[in-house]
Design brief:
alpha/beta; Rossmann fold; Dihydrodipicolinate Reductase, domain 2; 2 domains; 9-stranded mixed sheet; 6-stranded parallel sheet
Length: 365
Amino acid sequence: MNPYRVLVVGLGKRGMHHAHAFNEDSRFDLVGICDQRGDRLRDAAGELSVETIADDARVAAKSAKPDVFCFCTMPDVRYELVEIGVECGASLIAFEKPMALSLCEADKIMTIVREAGVRAVVCHQHRYGEHYQKVRHIIESGQLGRVHTIHGTSCAWMAHLMTHLVDYMRWYNDNVDAQWVMAQAAGRCKLSDRQHPSPDYIAGVVHFANGVQGIIDCGAGAPDVPEVDYWWRKCRIIVHGTLGFAEVLTNDGWRAVTREGASMGEGRMDYEHDMRLYVADIAEWLADPEVIHPCNVESAYKGFEIVMAMCRSVVQRAQIPLPLTPGSNELDELVAVLPDRPVIPSTSENASHYLPQAGLDSDLS
């Protein structure tokens, strides 16, 4: 069988992670790259041997005729690029989180891919980390007893990492649907962030249909993880059961306490390892429609819906049932209701990232 043809649009840090992962898997042929920045395009072309090099995504897609249309850009152009992926006849579209910046946009994305019969994945790649997998194994083994609470925290702001927290929370809870959420938020400095607009801090509760409660803290007020050396990597998921608990730290391994005693192990964010497995699962899904990718867009949508429901809870000061009904742009509504008062960060290291001029994006840039 001929390799699947791949086009990668957006050649920042994450785009190059994708490009190299596809390039190193023999089931794929990286045939095209695209970026609006000429310097990135030249640098990538020097590293990768490709047929198509372009600064316009639609031109690149028309020329490359990819089976996989992969884009790694800022979130404000999600639908437009998904539309190009559908128009060029790609069998699968791969893109970054968050999948959209409003539920309305996410609904449009789901409509266009469903109607076209195009498979799609959203890159929540941390689940491939051995430490994340270890906690999943502990849960499945029954060592924690009945899971009743899952707590996810991140010092990065909502549009950066909350969908990661929710995705792994849902995974650790067997992807059971959420029934309702309640949340509160503070600070609107980061709502003006061009790259990933978010409240400075948001926290809330997610109630799942099996009775498990999810607790989320995301942004300036989230708990510190002093074991981890950089604000971006200060993420933690803790799973509590009737017989013990297990936790994973994005950059400091895993640990657990059960009836069998205390145990721990290593593990850190590893793009090379995680992206290789993420891309391998894309190949499996393309070869067999029944082998659905763990990061499939249907699952990503349910996670994103939880995030938008939390935003609506802040605005309406109410419990929000799921699934969501159509509504106004959630981020615009947050701008209207959140007071212009700073949030007291949980760590001094985190404080500088919540100043008005701080708009860096270490994930995509």
